[in-house]
From TrEMBL:
Domain of life: Bacteria
GO MF annotations in UniProt: oxidoreductase activity, acting on the CH-OH group of donors, NAD or NADP as acceptor
Family note: Belongs to the short-chain dehydrogenases/reductases (SDR) family.
Organism of origin: Roseospira goensis
Protein's name in the database: NAD(P)-dependent dehydrogenase (Short-subunit alcohol dehydrogenase family)
């Protein structure tokens, strides 16, 4: 059975990825900051490892733990959305949460990719999927606010583009995804779709991805998202 590694799997979209891949019989390696506080994740029976993706030493240590294991799919899912609403509007935006967003949403996906590239290279058709957001689309931006989150997702889009240029020639298909506006802790109760709908769509795209898709930015329904 193929193997997938998913970051930020304690809840929300990460947890739904775990559930669906497990239901399909995949070997699932799931990471979360504190497994003791993630009972829904441990109940899936996935192989769980503690990992704060902003802790570079911990990322490298997990890399050593998983050395030699083939990864067919790696999903950079962990993410934060600090300063929603008025706090994140033009005026006096605090720097610390902005730095946290950049470390988690931008830098960590690149460091995770660096760490597990050898595991991906062992697979026949490896896919490196990074969960971005349409809110990071510069072409689509029209409304004010949320600059902390928006700038971090715009940043990770360049990370994915850079990874596609670095790793495409090594056979790794690198994709940026917009999961839709999804009912999770982050998306809130007014979101438009369920985690089941989002992840069903994203898994379909991952399963169908070919080297020709390397470097694309796609929504969960397969629509191209402007960078
Ligand atoms: N929901 C949406 O509408 C939506 C839309 C567009 C994009 N996205 C993106 O989709 C991804 C998943 O979002 P979600 O809706 O599932 O959000 P969520 O419900 O808030 O879950 C976020 C997950 O990321 C984990 N995480 C945060 N910081 C981490 C860190 N430093 N190290 C490890 N894990 C960390 C959280 O772990 P803890 O439990 O430890 O906090 C949690 O498992 C994110 O990248 C988000 O930006 C979501």
């Amino acid at each position: 059975m193929p193997t997938v590694l998913i970051t930020g799997a304690s809840r929300g979209l990460g947890l739904e990825f775990v559930r669906q891949y497990r239901a399909d019989g995949w070997d699932v390696i799931a990471t979360c900051r504190d497994p003791a506080k993630a009972p829904e994740l441990t109940a899936t029976g996935a192989e769980v490892h503690a990992l704060d993706v902003t802790d570079d030493a911990a990322v490298k240590a997990l890399g050593r733990t998983l050395a030699g294991r083939t990864l067919d799919v790696l999903i950079n899912n962990a993410g934060v959305y600090p300063l929603k609403g008025p706090q994140g509007s033009f005026g006096d935006i605090p720097v610390k949460p902005w730095m946290e967003a950049l470390r988690t949403n931008v830098i960590a996906p690149w460091k995770v990719a660096e760490t597990f590239v050898a595991n991906l290279e062992q697979a026949e058709r490896p896919v490196l999927a990074t969960i971005s957001s349409k809110m990071g689309s510069i072409g689509d931006a029209a409304s004010p606010g949320s600059v902390v989150y928006r700038s971090s997702k715009a940043g990770v889009n360049m990370v994915v583009k850079g990874l596609s240029i670095e790793l495409g020639p090594r056979g790794i298909i690198c994709l940026a995804f917009h999961p839709g506006w999804v009912k999770t802790d982050m998306g809130g109760p007014n979101a438009l779709i369920t985690p089941e709908q989002s992840i069903t769509g994203l898994r379909r795209l991952i399963a169908a991805a070919t080297p020709a898709d390397n470097g694309r930015f796609l929504a969960y329904d397969g629509q191209e998202v402007p960078w």
